[in-house]
Specification:
By secondary structure, the chain is α+β, with helices and mostly antiparallel strands. It has two domains: 245 residues, 2-Layer Sandwich (BirA Bifunctional Protein, domain 2); 90 residues, 3-Layer(aba) Sandwich (Rossmann fold). The strands form three sheets. It has an eight-stranded mixed β-sheet. A five-stranded mixed β-sheet has the order 13-12-14-15-16, with helices on both faces.
């Protein structure tokens, strides 16, 4: 019978790699906590209408990439393709906006899109994201970008580039959309197939085309920055001024529009040249109309998401994480000794030590070899003699020093053991 394997576009995250994921999550949790962001966890699947209304039916995400199915109640459900819509739904449903002030929320979890799998892009992928709801201020945009930058730099990324744009408000985009259609219509037959389809449905998305021929046509296309109202232009200049005050360099990119319909005003991407074609590691922007579109009161908001898979690829290129530290490797042979070893290992763990218990039942020689490979600080040895006398052999693996200790006395020596372990850590 053939073995069952993971589906295309999904992958297992094995222990050797998971340490990088835990590092990202720990750094993000620390930095976001210091900025008073609170974690929120929303369902993995939602009513399909949430994403159709929130993201936009003309987008590629809704039109081509969502995992949608009917449940037994004949309701249309969708595995979440992104995190913002679910957070906004929860914000409305639970009345978070009535609590006053600004809601700073963050989330972490899997998302699902039917895309062509490649390095850093899977059909099940993971994001860490933030949503700041309730502030129209340009300071909220700048703070969100600054926090994303802090997280990535703290993790060790150095080749970061911030691409920045404003797509204005609805009136600005209407003017720009009309100008863009007028410019592109004479070139329609020369556009790539996707862009020809988008010309009537969602022309701004043509700016994001990767087709070389389309990009060449766009060289002389109108710029969104030339169609901003004085108010939108002033707001965008304020965002730029705040980023400069924060010493965050940026590059203006008038073609940056993002792929979701809910964005307004500021949009941005943080890219790393170490990722090649899939350079974007964090992206986001302002979405002042989404809360109202989904049935809530008009609420200004801004947010971003970091792609975990791409970020972990970068971290693996930048650094090798050390193996998890093990204090004691416990070997035992014989039924009484093995039972006592289990009890002693668990007792030491409860006292705060890291203990790996060899459960192979193999000869002492093989267990000692595994102890050496474990990089543990010390080996605890129980055989028939130790079981009978209620003792344990403590062998420090760096020096080979070995001492017999009463099992009952081992925990009373915990301070001395910890001092020795700490000394080993400092030397390493």
């Amino acid at each position: 019978m053939a073995a069952i394997q993971a589906l295309r576009g999904t992958r297992d995250i094995l222990p050797a790699e998971i340490r990088y994921w835990q590092q990202v999550e720990a750094v993000a949790r620390d930095i976001l906590g210091k900025a008073t962001y609170q974690e929120i966890r929303t369902p993995t699947f939602e009513p399909t209408a949430l994403f159709e209304r929130g993201i936009g039916e003309a987008t590629d995400v809704v039109g081509k990439e969502m995992y949608t199915f009917k449940d037994r109640g004949d309701r249309s459900l969708t595995l979440r393709p992104e995190g913002t819509a679910g957070v906004v739904r929860s914000f409305i449903e639970h009345g978070l906006g009535t609590q006053g002030g600004v809601q700073r929320l963050w989330y972490c979890g899997p998302m699902f899109r039917y895309e062509r799998p490649q390095a850093g892009r899977q059909r099940q992928f993971h994001q860490i994201g933030v949503e700041v709801l309730g502030s129209p201020s340009a300071r909220a945009d700048a703070e969100a970008i600054a926090i994303a930058t802090d997280i990535l730099k703290t993790l060790g990324l150095k080749t970061l580039e911030l691409n920045l744009n404003s797509i204005g408000d609805a009136s600005d985009r209407d003017r720009f959309r009309a100008a863009l259609i007028d410019y592109l219509t004479p070139f329609k037959d020369k556009l790539d197939a996707d862009s020809q389809d988008r010309l009537t449905r969602n022309p701004l998305r043509i700016l994001d085309s990767k087709d070389e021929g389309t990009q060449k046509i766009l060289d002389q296309a109108p710029s969104i920055l030339d169609h901003l109202s004085p108010e939108s232009q002033a707001r965008f200049e304020q965002v730029q001024s705040l980023l400069s005050a924060l010493n965050i360099p940026y590059t203006l990119n008038p073609r940056l529009v993002r792929g979701l319909d809910y964005y307004t005003h500021t949009v941005f991407e943080l890219q790393s040249q170490d990722l090649g074609a899939q350079a974007t590691v964090c992206a986001g922007g302002r979405y002042d109309g989404l809360v109202q579109e989904l049935g809530g009161a008009a609420t200004p908001a801004v947010g971003w998401a970091i792609g975990m898979e791409r970020l972990v690829i970068l971290l693996q290129q930048l650094q090798s994480l050390p193996e998890p530290a093990i204090d004691f490797y416990m070997v035992s042979k014989g039924e009484p000794a093995e039972a006592q070893a289990l009890v002693l290992a668990q007792t030491l763990r409860q006292a705060g030590f890291t203990v790996e218990l060899d459960m192979s039942g193999s000869a002492f020689g093989k267990q000692f070899k595994r102890a050496d490979r474990s990089h543990a600080a010390a080996c605890l040895i129980l055989g028939d003699t130790e079981a009978e006398t209620q003792t344990v052999q403590l062998k420090w693996l760096d020096t080979g020093d070995q001492t017999a200790i009463a099992q009952a006395d081992l925990l009373t020596m915990s301070d001395a053991l910890q001092t020795r372990l700490n000394s080993r850590t400092r030397e390493a």
